[in-house]
Amino acid sequence: RICSAMALSVASVPKRIAVIGAGIIGLSSALYLNTELRLDGIPCSIEVFAEHRPPLTTSDGAAGLWEPLFVHGTPADQQRWWGRETYQWLRYLRVQKDAGEMGVAEYSGYLLFYEPVEDPPWRDVVIGFRHATDDELKDIQTPVRHGWYFVNMSCQGNRYCSWLLKRCKEQGITFHEQKINSLSELAGRCDVVVNCSGIGAHKLVGDNDIVPIKGQAMKVAAPWIKQFTLIASADFVSYILPCTDFVVLGGTAESGRWDTDIEPEVSRKILENCSKINGSVENAPVIGEWSGSRPHRKTGVRVERALVPLDSSQRPLEVVHNYGHGGSGITFHWGCARYAASLTRKALGLPDSCGHDDDLLYKTMSVPLVSSSSKL
Question: Is the CB of residue 319 less than 8 Å from the CB of residue 308?
Fold first, then answer.
């Protein structure tokens, strides 16, 4: 299935690509790009530079429910495109033999509001979207007045990121435990940089539109919870989200908070709010707590190509930015990886991809080229 015509049209010297960041955005960008180029017969060498990798990234703490969150400023058509690509990818993965390892599963449930709101731009992306009935709203102990019911995808962050990391290593992608403080550090080491630095873009590229939105959540043992419930308002979000290994109770959305301290009073409030949604979680055993900073970007998710000037003795550096996903890293990751790959090809002077469906991509990345333990 390799696109031989394309392979003959490009140089045999491997394209050198550096990816900054090893959260869900960096890992999926590296894996998708590597797989697509391999299928098109284009040799490449991909290196990932990150201070942290799974299980120590912000993405690892994500409950992983698909739902565009904290992406104000991102055009609705982009949200639909990136969200649709990811939703369909996760629906494909949920029935594969390693779905349990990935933590990918399908759940139905509710997204509820205290006041009526317009239908979301992604209503035709998800399966079975409808408005919640009055009887359904009455089952919630808090005074919600409006809501949507739909079939959704869940992607438990720690499991999925570990799966992505393993697949990347098996495909020969090299990892460096190194924080990149300046793009100039990669000059001469690669042909293009894919910047997936998340909240780190605030300092790395001087993006003052990056603002952290602190979130705190609890993990409880509540295997009887089979549906997700999320209540959104202007200043907070409460949710009960079933995952493969636990149920996540949340949460908070504190803009401008750079710390990731777990605050006992916040945990108490989370449990109180979630018990009002579903009283059965009040005495569920707590098996963990988590806090992290969502990489919100005030002007919207940034996935674009840029030519970054260096000093006078060096050529400008080709960079593809892919950061600022707010609370939607899991929701947009595969769609953004596809789009970033197309921009990376342009930066490398390569033609567009031959086009490959999810089945071929998955089967290709599932065949190890090297042992996953042979790459750092």
Answer: yes
Asked if residues 240 and 228 have their Cβ atoms less than 8 Å apart, the reply is yes
pLDDT of 64 over the 70 cut: yes
Sign of CA dihedral 24, 41, 187, 336: negative
Residue 118 clears pLDDT 70, i.e. is over it? yes
Helix runs in the chain, H state only: 4-9, 24-39, 76-93, 99-102, 134-138, 157-170, 201-204, 264-277, 329-347, 358-365
Tokens of 142: 């808090």
**Could you give the maximum distance between any two Cα atoms of the chain, in Å?**
69
User: Residue 269: which residues within 8 A CB-CB, separation 6 or more?
Assistant: none
Helix axes 358-365 and 76-93, enclosed angle (nearest 10): 60
Distance CA 68, CA 72 (A): 10
Distance CA 317, CA 312 (A): 12
Name the residue with tokens 């567009």. Answer: 352
pLDDT in tens, 312-350: 777 899 999 999 999 999 999 999 999 999 999 999 999
CA dihedral (329, 332, 337, 342) in degrees, to 10, reads: -140
pLDDT in tens, 163-182: 999 999 999 999 999 999 99
Do 47 and 12 contact (CB within 8 A), yes or no? no
- Its pTM stands at 0.93
As a whole number of angstroms, the distance between CA 376 and CA 374 comes to 7
Q: Give the three-class secondary structure for 317.
A: strand
